[in-house]
Amino acid sequence: MNSLPPLTHQFVSHFGEMGSRWGINRTVGQIYALIFVSPKPLNADEIAEALEFSRSNVSIGLKELQSWRLVKLKHLAGDRREYFEAPQDVWEIFKSLAEEKRRREVEPTLSMLRAALVETPGNEADAHAQKRMQQMHELIDLSSTWFDDVQRLSPETIGRLMRMGSSIKTVLDMTDKLKIVGRKKVSS
Amino acid sequence: MNSLPPLTHQFVSHFGEMGSRWGINRTVGQIYALIFVSPKPLNADEIAEALEFSRSNVSIGLKELQSWRLVKLKHLAGDRREYFEAPQDVWEIFKSLAEEKRRREVEPTLSMLRAALVETPGNEADAHAQKRMQQMHELIDLSSTWFDDVQRLSPETIGRLMRMGSSIKTVLDMTDKLKIVGRKKVSS
DNA sequence: TTGTATTTTCACGAATGTGTGAAAACTGTA
DNA sequence: TACAGTTTTCACACATTCGTGAAAATACAA
């Protein structure tokens, strides 16, 4: 760990520190950071040595990172060991992360809400609770579906959308106007 | 806790279970859930009784929820106790959450990346690492700025944008075409 | 198949996080 | 100021998570 070059070291340390806030542990964060900045795939021993973790710890960390689809397993010719690398395209990474987060952190709640919404509340309190759940469901469902849709766009298109920022409103207003004009034309 | 009406109970339990995935603990999750579905503001004692938590635990949980801006403190006339309620507008809640998450989970990383990007790499490995950090920075910075922008739009506009889903691409393509036509006109 | 390199599992100690009751601190009223 | 209601802090016990080395399982070459 201390033998890492300064920028890499800084990056790896930061991911270790932030790990807990992101819901992964220090080890996993550092392993990912190291793989992310590495110019070539790494095997578990290299990681264990660079980070001064036990081999078993690295094994567990890599399993976890694979479950998040943040690292890809790669086999090098003439080498039996397993090598890992991070996808090169950061948009790809972003997508995997978002998708996995939704699956783990959002979907279960959506299911619970859906189940609760088809029940018939047995009293005043539950009737109100159900109304609140309805509001929550609407919001989560809309954002979730939207994210799903947008994810399918090319990175280039997403980039274009994002760079518009809040001026997307103007575009939206414009298209709405066009639609109304269109409708008027048809109906008149 | 067991005296809560069934739908409320289900909701509260779920938030307790999901808590760990969301980076809050069971207690905090349940307290929030209870406040969210409650038709009226609640005080700490009511929460402690309903959830069968110790009074001190509720106090700590409420502090945490306030720090996330998920509950609002409210004083009821003629009552010295502090009452808490969740903002009624779910979009408002969503915004607070997103903002707070960015502040805690994204900003520190952006700072670190910015700092690393102005350094001069001392060797090949760090040169490559810096390139990767550059890519990561670009992505996070763009998304972060975009989120900031969009957050300022009215819930209604955001809703409109989201309901468009991936067909936003068509709109984007259209406006691009308009711009090109416009430019041609000017230049010709 | 055997043998060896490699990965995974597991039990354990260490570290961290959680929830409690009691005590301290605070707040507003008289 | 005194004091009663309310909130917060704190030390402690308990639970959970983390990281390790050793042993077991797996994969593959000969």
Give a nutshell description of this structure.
Chain A has 188 residues and is mainly alpha-helical.
Order of helices and strands of chain A: HHEHHEEHHHH
- Helix proportion of chain A: over 70%
Largest sheet of chain A: 3 strands, antiparallel
Tell me the β content of chain A.
5-15%
CATH homologous superfamily heading of the largest domain in chain A: Winged helix-like DNA-binding domain superfamily/Winged helix DNA-binding domain
What is the 3D form of chain A?
A: extended
Q: Biggest interface and its residues per chain? A: A-B, 65 and 65 residues
| Sheet with most strands: strand arrangement of chain A | 1-3-2
Number of domains of chain A: 2
From the coordinates shown, what is the CATH architecture of the largest domain in chain A?
A: Orthogonal Bundle
How many DSSP helices of chain A?
8
What would the CATH topology of the largest domain in chain A be?
Arc Repressor Mutant, subunit A
State the name of the first-level CATH class of the largest domain in chain A. Mainly Alpha
